[in-house]
Amino acid sequence: MPTSPGTALKDDVIVVRDGERALSLELMPLREGVARGFLHASPRNMKLSDASRTKLRDDLTARPYSKVLVLDNKHNLLRGALQKSGWRLTRAIPTKPSMQCVMMTTYDLPMDDSLFDAGGLRVDTKNTDHMHGIEVDLGARKAWAFYTDDGTTARIVCEPERRLGMMVASNTEDFEQVARCLLEFLAMANKSWAVFSMDMGRYIRRYDPITMWRMTLDRPIGYQHNVQPVSSSNKREAVRLFSEYYDETKLESMFRLRRMRSDKTFSTFVMDGGFVITRLEGDVGLIFDIYVSPARQGEGLGSELMKCAITQFAGRVTSCYLHTSYPRAKRLYEKFGFKTVYSQLGIRLDEVVLEPPRSR
User: Fold this and answer.
1) For a Cys staple, 338 with which of 98, 162, 214, 215, CB 3.0–4.6 Å?
2) What is the fold of 220-317?
3) CA gyration radius for the chain?
């Protein structure tokens, strides 16, 4: 028999439980009246009861936010729970460019001495043949944006050691409009992420970009833990957790797990309610993904999975690293000795904006 749904708040995380089903929504304040939410649901295709929907609405309404940016899942869980009660859900990034633009390459850039990049430097097109781009018509002037296509991610990173994109103009006031048009173009192209170098933050701040940290741990040591490698006995649990985390069908998750198991650089470890994936990259280790199901949050599983991952690398690598954009997870990693060594800014192109009823 399902138990009565309840809601618990911890570390600014809303957790709605309904029997064995659970939803977690981590809220990260961005500025006055605006927050970003990180959503997970267990199981992936869960449907909220009327009581659970009411609890979720009440908890969100009680927060001091007039807008919440969040990626809804593929089943539109939040839309179904909130829209009928007057909440407004709109795309954060429109899928139609607000200015006229055409596709081009860096070879099509005019050789004009008045042009400079977002860092204030003269435009250098050497070693940029891997970049894709658009020309933006600003009326009296034109400007350009270039990016590196990395599957579902577009990278606009213009640093001496990493040239993966750039914005070009003859007037600094144009860069914000160029960034806007590029994001709308990428959203129209069904990209999931646009990643910028930190120095471009002033041109994309209106979109409340997510800080993405690269964290490193030197000389990992071993810990006692209770996490097991994936095997025939726990493969079903791994597939279930993959389906939740990657928001995909169990069949897709089964193939994902099969691909990882066939690649000897990957190792997958599972416990009841969570998994961690590691990867060996020569003498360096990568904590590829780590996940705790919403139904098991607050039980210490995250620490147990981290102990497993670090132990996997002990004595095998000189250092290990990971990437995260979750502030709560970052605090956990710091407890294990990880240090931030590199940061970028990410914009999730398929986020929605939640706005409570105007009568609030």
Assistant:
1) 215
2) Aminopeptidase (3.40.630)
3) 22
Q: Which helix (H) or strand (E) holds 244?
A: helix 235-246
Q: pTM of the entire structure?
A: 0.88
Q: Alpha-carbon distance 149 to 129, whole Å? A: 12
* pLDDT given for residue 328 in this prediction: 84
Domain ranges of the chain: 6-85, 101-208, 220-317
pLDDT band at 4 (very low <50, low <70, confident <90, very high): very low
Residue 8 confidence (pLDDT) above 60: no
DSSP symbols for 226-278: --EE--TTTHHHHHHHHHHHHT--HHHHHHHHHHHHHSTTEEEEEETTEEEEE
Among positive and negative, which fits the CA dihedral 72, 151, 340, 321? positive
Question: Residue 221 in 3-state DSSP?
Answer: coil
Tell me what pLDDT residue 1 has.
Answer: 32
Amino acid 203 reads Y
3-state secondary structure of 52: helix
| Cα–Cα distance measured from residue 342 to residue 213, given in angstroms and rounded to the nearest whole number | 6
